[in-house]
Amino acid sequence: MKSIPALLAAALITAIAPLRADLVLKPNDMVAICGDSITEQRLYSAFMEEYFLMCRPVEGLRAAQFGWVGEATGGFAARIESDILPFKPTVVTTCYGMNDGGYNAMTAHTVDAFRQATTTFVEKLKAGGVRAILLSGPGCVDSTAFWRPGATAEEYNKTLATLSDIAKEVAAKEGVTFVDMHTPMMDVMTKAKAAYGDKYPFVTGIGVHPAGNGQIVMAYVFLKALGCDGAIGTITVDLAGSTATGTPGQKIVSCQNGTVEVESTRYPFCFQGTPDKPGQAEGSVLSFFPFNDDLNRYLLVVKGLKGAKAKVTWGAVTKEFPAADLAKGVNLAAEFLVNPFCSQFRKVDTAVQAQQAQESLLIRSLLHNVSAFKTIAPNSGAELDKVAADGMAQETKLFSAAAALVVPVDHTIKIEQEP
Fold first, then answer.
1. How many angstroms separate the CA atoms of 273 and 175, rounded?
2. CATH class (in words) of the domain with range 4-225
3. Claim: this prediction has a pTM higher than 0.70
4. SS3 breakdown of the chain: % helix, strand, coil, rounded to 5?
5. Span 152-205, pLDDT tens digits
């Protein structure tokens, strides 16, 4: 395992290609991920941060989550100055509407209140110096598990679709980016239930809070909206010349007799669960939307194959591929869900979860209440500011601990030609 200075040096050597014009993210951006209790579940927010840290769409990204259980747009608008702006975000994603709809059929009052509060919080974020705002409407409720006395699942999903349309109107008026969360969530849920059965739990509990299977779709939607293109790395092997090359972040250590040793500072995204085992883990829905195609391409290209097929061993798994597919490029991230990156990926995930849990505590218990504390104890303003600063410093420390775990991963790809 490499030291932190070695990792930083590797990052400089393997700098990513010049940024595309359509990429919202810029180096060293601070991304604030905001929303209600669905965000405070710390699933899609963790997936996004892990993608920033390990897949590295650009360098130096940082993220924090600002979810608040039960929150609607008005509540978010009221806490922007106390909770979000102290982190100096340059990019903000928001996902609201689930609670704004009141779990009832749509009313004119609901529409007007959502439109006004959404406009207010967008204007506050702009005034706070946020460069890019991604405004998402709500996702969906589960078509079979949802239960509330005010509306059926079909009725409430219509309410949520209407609120999504209102978010789109506000985004266009305010000149910010609209993110359609409702349509892809409905689409994946419909496909998953068609494949796994109508009672397959895409949105859990009473049908409001997605598990990992729904939240990976949310992460996908936001990452796509941020302009991430998914080109994680390409390893090109020429068997005839016994040579190999790697794109930035993939250093070829050796290549001999079809065996390639690689040192990677840019990881493919790794999942828990697999599509062949229906469940609530994120991997169980990968067949129903193009996460790996769009965001997670870790390609192996093999030239000089003499036979019609070849075996590829990566880590502890061996699979057979047609030579024509290998010549074009096989996406190892999609084909080998269990791979040499999984162990380190899980370590980073654990650290990110610890960081984001601390953020919930820091925001709810401290930052949100500093002004009230100062009213109660007006002579302790300086001390309260110091406590808040100490809390922010601890959050930064936890983020740094997660980032420090993104160390170079050494792995071997073995290619065996077959007739």
1. 39
2. alpha beta
3. yes
4. 45, 20, 30
5. 999 999 999 999 999 999 999 999 999 999 999 999 999 999 999 999 999 998
